[in-house]
Amino acid sequence: MSGADVGVVIVAAGASTRTGGGELKQFTWVAGKPMLLHSLQLFQARADVAMVVCVVPHEHAGDPPPWIFQSDTERLLLSVGGRTRAESVRNGIADLPSSCRIVLVHDAARPLVPMSVVDRVVETVRGGTSAIAALPVVDTLKVVDANGRIERTVPRDALWRAQTPQGFPRDVLLRAHRAALDGGYDATDDAALVEVLGEPVMVVRGSERALKVTEAADFSRAEAMRGLDD
Protein backbone atom coordinates (compact mmCIF):
# COMPACT_ATOMS: atom_id res chain seq x y z
CA MET A 1 0.00 0.00 0.00
CA SER A 2 1.31 3.42 -0.93
CA GLY A 3 2.46 5.33 2.14
CA ALA A 4 2.16 2.33 4.47
CA ASP A 5 5.11 2.36 6.86
CA VAL A 6 4.23 -0.19 9.56
CA GLY A 7 5.63 -3.70 9.54
CA VAL A 8 4.29 -6.41 11.83
CA VAL A 9 6.09 -9.47 13.12
CA ILE A 10 3.73 -12.07 14.57
CA VAL A 11 5.65 -14.58 16.66
CA ALA A 12 4.06 -17.98 16.10
CA ALA A 13 7.09 -20.24 16.12
CA GLY A 14 6.57 -21.99 19.43
CA ALA A 15 6.19 -25.75 19.62
CA SER A 16 3.93 -25.59 22.69
CA THR A 17 1.08 -28.08 22.91
CA ARG A 18 0.17 -27.28 26.52
CA THR A 19 -3.37 -26.58 25.40
CA GLY A 20 -3.85 -30.29 24.72
CA GLY A 21 -4.72 -32.35 21.67
CA GLY A 22 -1.22 -32.31 20.20
CA GLU A 23 -1.95 -29.44 17.80
CA LEU A 24 0.24 -26.36 17.85
CA LYS A 25 -1.36 -23.77 20.09
CA GLN A 26 -1.07 -20.96 17.55
CA PHE A 27 -2.96 -23.03 14.95
CA THR A 28 -5.77 -24.08 17.29
CA TRP A 29 -9.23 -22.63 16.71
CA VAL A 30 -10.58 -20.15 19.24
CA ALA A 31 -13.45 -17.69 19.02
CA GLY A 32 -14.39 -18.77 15.52
CA LYS A 33 -11.06 -19.08 13.72
CA PRO A 34 -7.46 -20.28 14.13
CA MET A 35 -5.58 -18.27 16.74
CA LEU A 36 -2.91 -16.97 14.35
CA LEU A 37 -5.52 -15.91 11.78
CA HIS A 38 -7.14 -13.55 14.31
CA SER A 39 -3.95 -11.53 14.62
CA LEU A 40 -3.07 -11.69 10.93
CA GLN A 41 -6.44 -10.30 9.88
CA LEU A 42 -6.38 -7.67 12.64
CA PHE A 43 -3.18 -6.08 11.42
CA GLN A 44 -4.02 -6.42 7.74
CA ALA A 45 -7.20 -4.44 8.39
CA ARG A 46 -4.97 -1.38 8.87
CA ALA A 47 -4.16 0.79 5.86
CA ASP A 48 -0.80 1.81 7.37
CA VAL A 49 0.48 -1.79 7.54
CA ALA A 50 2.75 -2.57 4.60
CA MET A 51 3.54 -6.18 5.52
CA VAL A 52 2.78 -8.82 8.13
CA VAL A 53 5.44 -11.47 8.70
CA CYS A 54 4.25 -14.59 10.49
CA VAL A 55 7.19 -16.41 12.06
CA VAL A 56 6.25 -20.10 12.17
CA PRO A 57 8.03 -23.39 12.87
CA HIS A 58 10.38 -24.54 10.09
CA GLU A 59 8.15 -27.40 9.00
CA HIS A 60 5.22 -25.05 8.42
CA ALA A 61 7.02 -22.21 6.63
CA GLY A 62 6.99 -24.06 3.31
CA ASP A 63 3.75 -25.92 3.92
CA PRO A 64 1.46 -23.63 5.95
CA PRO A 65 -2.09 -24.52 6.93
CA PRO A 66 -4.49 -23.51 4.12
CA TRP A 67 -6.55 -21.16 6.28
CA ILE A 68 -3.62 -18.74 6.50
CA PHE A 69 -4.45 -17.65 2.97
CA GLN A 70 -7.75 -16.21 4.19
CA SER A 71 -5.81 -12.98 4.31
CA ASP A 72 -4.25 -10.37 2.06
CA THR A 73 -1.56 -12.58 0.55
CA GLU A 74 0.17 -9.57 -1.02
CA ARG A 75 0.89 -8.35 2.51
CA LEU A 76 1.81 -11.74 3.98
CA LEU A 77 5.20 -13.35 4.38
CA LEU A 78 6.11 -16.51 6.26
CA SER A 79 9.43 -16.60 8.08
CA VAL A 80 11.17 -19.48 9.81
CA GLY A 81 11.32 -19.47 13.58
CA GLY A 82 14.63 -19.51 15.42
CA ARG A 83 15.94 -21.36 18.44
CA THR A 84 14.80 -18.53 20.72
CA ARG A 85 12.04 -15.96 20.65
CA ALA A 86 14.58 -13.20 20.00
CA GLU A 87 16.00 -15.09 17.02
CA SER A 88 12.49 -15.56 15.64
CA VAL A 89 11.83 -11.83 15.93
CA ARG A 90 15.11 -11.02 14.19
CA ASN A 91 14.18 -13.36 11.35
CA GLY A 92 10.86 -11.60 11.01
CA ILE A 93 12.36 -8.11 11.01
CA ALA A 94 14.84 -9.12 8.32
CA ASP A 95 11.95 -10.04 6.02
CA LEU A 96 10.14 -6.70 6.38
CA PRO A 97 10.38 -4.22 3.49
CA SER A 98 12.71 -1.28 4.01
CA SER A 99 9.69 1.05 3.87
CA CYS A 100 8.59 -0.20 7.31
CA ARG A 101 9.92 2.48 9.64
CA ILE A 102 7.73 1.26 12.50
CA VAL A 103 7.80 -2.35 13.68
CA LEU A 104 5.11 -4.00 15.78
CA VAL A 105 5.90 -7.30 17.47
CA HIS A 106 2.93 -9.40 18.52
CA ASP A 107 2.43 -12.80 20.13
CA ALA A 108 0.11 -15.09 18.19
CA ALA A 109 -1.09 -16.39 21.56
CA ARG A 110 -2.96 -13.08 22.07
CA PRO A 111 -5.68 -13.46 19.41
CA LEU A 112 -8.30 -10.97 20.60
CA VAL A 113 -6.44 -7.66 20.89
CA PRO A 114 -8.80 -4.77 20.10
CA MET A 115 -7.83 -2.40 17.27
CA SER A 116 -7.97 0.49 19.73
CA VAL A 117 -4.95 -0.97 21.55
CA VAL A 118 -3.01 -1.19 18.29
CA ASP A 119 -3.99 2.43 17.58
CA ARG A 120 -2.52 3.59 20.88
CA VAL A 121 0.75 1.74 20.35
CA VAL A 122 1.22 3.01 16.78
CA GLU A 123 0.32 6.60 17.72
CA THR A 124 2.98 6.63 20.43
CA VAL A 125 5.66 5.18 18.14
CA ARG A 126 4.79 7.76 15.47
CA GLY A 127 5.74 10.33 18.10
CA GLY A 128 9.22 8.80 18.19
CA THR A 129 9.00 6.65 21.33
CA SER A 130 8.76 2.90 21.68
CA ALA A 131 5.55 1.69 23.32
CA ILE A 132 3.95 -1.46 24.69
CA ALA A 133 0.40 -2.37 25.58
CA ALA A 134 0.07 -3.15 29.27
CA LEU A 135 -2.35 -3.21 32.20
CA PRO A 136 -1.72 -2.10 35.79
CA VAL A 137 -1.35 -4.86 38.36
CA VAL A 138 -4.39 -4.97 40.62
CA ASP A 139 -3.58 -8.01 42.75
CA THR A 140 -1.40 -7.93 45.85
CA LEU A 141 1.99 -9.47 45.03
CA LYS A 142 4.01 -11.62 47.42
CA VAL A 143 7.62 -12.77 47.26
CA VAL A 144 7.96 -16.28 48.70
CA ASP A 145 10.87 -18.58 49.47
CA ALA A 146 11.42 -22.11 48.19
CA ASN A 147 9.16 -23.47 50.96
CA GLY A 148 6.26 -21.20 50.07
CA ARG A 149 6.77 -18.86 53.03
CA ILE A 150 6.08 -15.18 52.32
CA GLU A 151 9.19 -13.05 52.54
CA ARG A 152 7.68 -9.69 51.66
CA THR A 153 4.86 -7.89 49.91
CA VAL A 154 5.74 -6.01 46.73
CA PRO A 155 4.22 -2.53 46.26
CA ARG A 156 2.09 -2.70 43.13
CA ASP A 157 1.61 1.03 42.48
CA ALA A 158 4.15 1.17 39.64
CA LEU A 159 3.74 -2.37 38.31
CA TRP A 160 2.16 -3.18 34.96
CA ARG A 161 1.51 -6.46 33.12
CA ALA A 162 3.15 -6.33 29.71
CA GLN A 163 1.12 -7.39 26.70
CA THR A 164 1.54 -7.17 22.94
CA PRO A 165 1.64 -5.60 20.46
CA GLN A 166 4.85 -3.81 21.29
CA GLY A 167 5.95 -1.10 18.87
CA PHE A 168 9.31 0.45 18.07
CA PRO A 169 11.05 2.70 15.60
CA ARG A 170 12.74 0.13 13.38
CA ASP A 171 16.26 1.43 13.93
CA VAL A 172 15.84 1.28 17.71
CA LEU A 173 14.59 -2.30 17.65
CA LEU A 174 17.42 -3.37 15.34
CA ARG A 175 20.04 -1.79 17.60
CA ALA A 176 18.51 -3.52 20.62
CA HIS A 177 18.62 -6.94 18.97
CA ARG A 178 22.16 -6.44 17.68
CA ALA A 179 23.33 -5.47 21.17
CA ALA A 180 21.63 -8.53 22.69
CA LEU A 181 23.18 -10.80 20.07
CA ASP A 182 26.64 -9.29 20.57
CA GLY A 183 26.28 -9.34 24.34
CA GLY A 184 24.91 -12.86 24.52
CA TYR A 185 21.80 -11.97 26.52
CA ASP A 186 18.09 -12.48 25.93
CA ALA A 187 14.78 -11.31 27.34
CA THR A 188 11.17 -12.43 27.44
CA ASP A 189 10.01 -9.47 25.39
CA ASP A 190 11.45 -6.92 22.99
CA ALA A 191 10.81 -3.96 25.25
CA ALA A 192 13.31 -5.37 27.75
CA LEU A 193 16.01 -5.41 25.06
CA VAL A 194 15.29 -1.79 24.19
CA GLU A 195 15.39 -0.85 27.87
CA VAL A 196 18.96 -2.19 28.09
CA LEU A 197 19.97 0.43 25.52
CA GLY A 198 18.64 3.15 27.79
CA GLU A 199 15.98 4.04 25.21
CA PRO A 200 12.59 5.14 26.60
CA VAL A 201 9.65 2.76 26.32
CA MET A 202 6.18 4.06 27.11
CA VAL A 203 3.23 2.08 28.43
CA VAL A 204 -0.15 2.54 26.76
CA ARG A 205 -3.41 1.10 28.01
CA GLY A 206 -3.89 -2.50 26.99
CA SER A 207 -7.02 -4.61 27.33
CA GLU A 208 -8.24 -7.63 29.26
CA ARG A 209 -9.22 -8.98 25.84
CA ALA A 210 -5.50 -9.23 25.04
CA LEU A 211 -5.20 -12.25 27.29
CA LYS A 212 -2.49 -14.77 26.47
CA VAL A 213 -3.92 -18.19 25.64
CA THR A 214 -1.53 -20.59 27.32
CA GLU A 215 -3.47 -23.34 29.08
CA ALA A 216 -6.55 -25.27 27.96
CA ALA A 217 -8.77 -23.26 30.32
CA ASP A 218 -7.75 -20.03 28.56
CA PHE A 219 -9.77 -21.06 25.51
CA SER A 220 -12.95 -20.80 27.54
CA ARG A 221 -11.91 -17.37 28.77
CA ALA A 222 -11.22 -16.23 25.22
CA GLU A 223 -14.60 -17.53 24.04
CA ALA A 224 -16.30 -15.58 26.85
CA MET A 225 -14.56 -12.37 25.76
CA ARG A 226 -15.49 -12.83 22.11
CA GLY A 227 -17.53 -9.88 20.92
CA LEU A 228 -17.12 -7.89 24.15
CA ASP A 229 -16.29 -4.21 23.88
CA ASP A 230 -12.78 -3.06 24.76
Number of strand elements:
11
Overall mean pLDDT:
92
Radius of gyration (Å) = 18 Å
**In DSSP terms, counting alpha (H) and pi (I) runs of 4 or more, how many helices?**
7
Distance between the termini: 28 Å
How are strands sequenced across the largest beta sheet? 5-4-1-6-10-7-11
CATH architecture: Alpha-Beta Complex
| Low-pLDDT ranges | none
Q: Identify the CATH homologous superfamily.
A: Spore Coat Polysaccharide Biosynthesis Protein SpsA, Chain A
The proportion of strand residues reads 25-35%
Please state the overall shape, judged from the principal axes of the Cα atoms: globular
Please estimate the helix content. Answer: 25-40%
